[in-house]
Amino acid sequence: MKSVRVWFTKDKEARYISHLDLNRTMLRAISHSKIPVWHTEGFNPHPFITFALPLSLGFRGVKETMDMKLVEDIPYDEIIAKLNNSLPMGIRVYQVTEPVMKPGVIAYGLFDIKINSADVPVDTLYKLTNNLFNMDEIMVEKKSKKGIREVDLKENFCKYTITQDTDNVNIQIILPAGSTTNVNPSLIVKAIGDINNIEIYADITRLDIYNGEVKSFE
Amino acid sequence: MINKDMERLLLKVQKPGRYVGGELNSVGKNKSEVDVRFAFCFPDTYEVGMSHLGMKILYSQFNSVPYIWCERVFAPWIDMEDLMRQNNIPLCALESGDSVRDFDFIGFTLQYELSYSNILNMLSLGGVPIKSADRKDLFNIVVAGGPCACNPEPIADFVDLFFIGEGEDVDLEVIELYRQCRKNKESKGSFLRKAAQIQGVYVPSLYEITYNDDGTVNAITPKDNAPMPIKKRLVMDMDNSYYPNNFVLPMVEIVHDRAVEEIFRGCIRGCRFCQAGFLYRPVREKSPEVIDNQCHTLCHNTGYDEVSLSSLSSSDYSQIGALLEKLTTWSKDESVSLSLPSLRVDGFNDEILSKIKTVRKSGLTFAPEAGTQRMRNVINKNVEEQELLETCTTAFNGGWTTVKLYFMIGLPTETMDDVEGIAHLGQKVVDAYYSCENKPKGKSVRVTVSASSFVPKPFTPFQWEPQDTTQQIVEKQQHIKTAITTKKIQFNYHDSSTSFLEAVFARGDRRLSAVLEKACHKGFHFDGWNDCFSLTKWLEIFDECGIDPSFYANRKRSFDETLPWDHIDYGIKKEFLINECKKAYESTTTPNCRQQCSNCGATQWKGGVCYEKR
Is it the case that residue A29 has pLDDT exceeding 70? Predict the structure, then answer.
């Protein structure tokens, strides 16, 4: 049995489906593709698949991964073609590799956050964004299973850049992501909106995921 | 394609995936290359509508015609509707993201009377005038079909044209006629008059209704040569009728997410409360070979690992054994499970049992419908208590521990003894479990008893019957509740106020259009959902319109009264229905179509069970 890592993008219409729905969509696609994937042996046998790191509903993902086990050898190109034939256009498989790292090592994510607001021009939004990033601490409420707690976003910021174009303010930022700490980039968007009392529309893409040494997940 | 304005709202609502489209197998076409655009509207949420087989059939069939582009439209849930109204965003179709008002045809499927408010709300959200008379051009033609079209009158002011019966053939003929009329630059009126000549088309504006002083219908008069009565259309050759070989595969969870194969239409039984049992006569079967092929193709093309064999009373399929035999030759190897969602108590046996649980065990549901033998004879259910208990014993021996039993309360001639019988029957099923030798060890039994309230429907022998008042229904529900003494029975019952409104619209006349119009202006929607339904608010509107809803729901009608749907002809003779009603009063049963022909009138269709060799 051979483990493979399937790399795909989640965009267009498919960015609006939840992780649970992605899981179901993938399971049916695998079943439709007839790729010889190992099935669990429990009461309800189903293809055994693992996603490295769930993507929030609404985000675009350009380097998403799913691991599965093959019970027969099959060329990687064939896996790509068959899966794409069985998946909606919003999910595209572009590569299959042998897994190098374990999903558990994932520690950071690189995000691209495009924001605009009907309430203020881009120039102003750019200033407001910079103001926020220059604050000593950015306290926000974070909801988790254990309830709501206050966290300081600022202490979680690693590398970031802020630029602007005609329509949007663009923030590229590395944030903790993974099983230990996780900061959702939409918290930043919410903070800018709440502090300035404006409504913000955000378009967020996860560009990459990294291990603890900020090396791209392989 | 996601509408750009809609996209900005998506992250503010629950389950945005239902507003985006983009599913595998959804059909995109170039709008400049098609002649007719058809918006297929399902007046409920995406999850409900996407589970509906009729929509899957017609969507695929329409799109198989090169000059038609059929798209799907669902009712947005209330959170999305609020945002759409605040931001002035019209209701859009999923495939193109274009507004409903851009379509040649706006078609609704009428599955349930309580969806009428959603139909009007969807038109209004789409920026389309709700009244037929206010849409003057040969464009935005609002059409409707489905079971509730058998009494189209309550929504007659809003719908330009109804399809009576089954849609596969008549829909395409009407679309083709429209295409010709547009080419010739004809008026909407001219198109409708021509369409009315097609069998299975009802154009309400071509019929005038007059009323008596007591509020009943006096006469229904056709004009412009419109036919009288309007005869239904139906598909006689099931093997060669259109069936999709692929489904649109939703990305989000829907109610029934599986392959569905229709195995026959109609029902041989003739239970007297059941509208479908009369509307879809005669029984027409697909052959086992065709079913087997279509199931296999569907599973192969979709990747589904479950097929549901759909029909009324599936165990009445004449070759059920042979069919299951065929299906299980491949289903097991391909890990596909089979389900038969509509099983009769007396059609359940070890063979069926072993076939449907080869892969996965689903729940078991039976519908004795009534608690006593007398009552079951009145409704012509023809199921004996002993059969139910034997069937349950078979199921328990086969490892099942949960059984659902469906009942109705408020049936004609029902007494409190009949009602109490429901609780007793539930208890007997529990007892049957414990006297079962091969029951699963160490497990308790769970019997769910559900009681819905009877709604008299057109084209049934009970179409003249009064519905129980809400007060009577509530008393009966409480009576069952107190008569159940074990915790092994879970008792569910239906909100009687929704059944009341359902009864009003099911047998209403054209004057109810005024009520629905008001309801639309007041923003009524999703009456089938507890979140939204308020009988009090509906009663206020009835009051404002000077209409007494109990006139439609709770009044006993006489056999010689002109019924609001008397101009619609489903091929069932009225004398037959009257005779059936009289037999009900005498607790006399009627044999099923395979045992003996009861001369209902369906032989006129020249096929199906009426001409089977007996």
Answer: yes
Residues on chain A touching B249 (C-beta within 8 angstroms): 25, 28, 88
Residue A43 has pLDDT above 80, yes or no: no
Residue A49, CA distances (Å) to A67, A134, B34, B92 in order: 6, 42, 42, 35
Q: Is the Cβ of A85 closer than 8 Å to some Cβ of chain B? A: no
> What digits encode the pLDDT tens for the residues B483-521?
999 999 999 998 889 999 999 999 999 999 999 999 999
CATH of domain B363-494: 3.30.750.200
- On whether any CB of chain B is under 8 Å from the CB of A119, the answer is no
- From chain B, which residues contact A within 8 Å (Cβ)? 2, 8, 10-11, 16-17, 19-24, 249, 251-253, 257, 301-305, 335, 360
**Calculated CA dihedral for residues B260, B265, B268, B273, nearest 10 degrees:** 80
For chain B, give every residue range classified as CATH 3.30.750.210: 258-361+571-614
What's the pLDDT at B361? 54
The structural domains of chain A, ordered by start, are 2-99 (3.30.70.580), 106-211 (3.30.70)
- Tokens 């290359």, located at residue: B33
Nearest residue of A to residue B253, measured between CA atoms: A21
Query: What residues in A contact B302, CB-CB < 8 Å?
Result: 28, 32
- Looking at the partner chain, which of B24, B252, B304 has a beta carbon nearest the beta carbon of A17? B252
Pick the CATH number of B4-231 from 2.40.128.130, 3.20.20.70, 3.40.50.880, 3.40.50.280: 3.40.50.280
> Could you tell me whether strands A49-51 and A60-70 are parallel, antiparallel, or unpaired per DSSP bridges?
antiparallel
- The topology under which CATH files domain B258-361+571-614 is Transcription Regulator spoIIAA (3.30.750)
- Residue A118 is given by DSSP the state S
Cβ <8 Å between A90 and B251:
yes
Q: Which residues of chain B have pLDDT under 70?
A: 348, 353, 356-363, 614
Prediction pTM value: 0.94
User: Is-contact A10 A90, C-beta < 8 A?
Assistant: yes
User: Residue B39: enclosing H or E segment and its boundaries?
Assistant: strand B36-42
Q: Searching chain A, which residue's CA lies closest to the CA of residue B254?
A: A21
The alpha helices in A70-205, defined as continuous H runs, are 76-86, 122-133, 186-196
Tens-place pLDDT, residues B412-447: 999 999 999 999 999 999 999 998 887 777 888 999
Contact A21 B24 (CB under 8 A): no
